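Support reply, case 0932

Customer input (verbatim):
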Amino acid sequence: MTKEQTVLLVDDCENDSLLMRIAFDKAQFESVLQCVDNGEKAIAYLNGDGPFGDRNNFPLPTVALLDLNMPKKTGFDVLAWVRTQPDLKRIPIIVVTASAHTADVERAFDLGANGYLVKPSEVEQLVGMVRCLRQWLEINQFPPLHQGGKMAEEITHEESRDRPSLRR
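Our regenerated output:
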């Protein structure tokens, strides 16, 4: 895991997003944390639409952390959409939500979630969860993502020859 890699946090709760930023700092998780506050913005970010079209400022994420209960489009809607997109379907998506309902867990995995975490109530527990995520990302291998026939590595290399290519 390098600093150039990005984590996309999709959560409509401003307090939860702030707590996640604090947890990332405390867990010494140095990757970029990009945040959007609803499902429509998550889809726009992942699709590179509108202001998210600049991949230097809004790179494809190494992993997405996805809340379920959000306005406009739910986490389930985002998950279902991502898994139908040939260029995005390999992005690991971990549901991070308040719901521990078995039906939600089953539906998330049926739609292609790679993990399901219930938001802890204590900040230190959240820091521990983020630390585990950081460690998992450090040891995991990821297949390359494709964007319009090019791998993300090729696009990154073409845009900036000074930075090392991403391992994605």
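We compared this against your earlier run and they match. Two observations from our side: Confidence is low (pLDDT under 50) at residues 148-168. The domain at 6-159 is CATH 3.40.50.2300 (Rossmann fold). Please reopen the case if you see a mismatch on your end.
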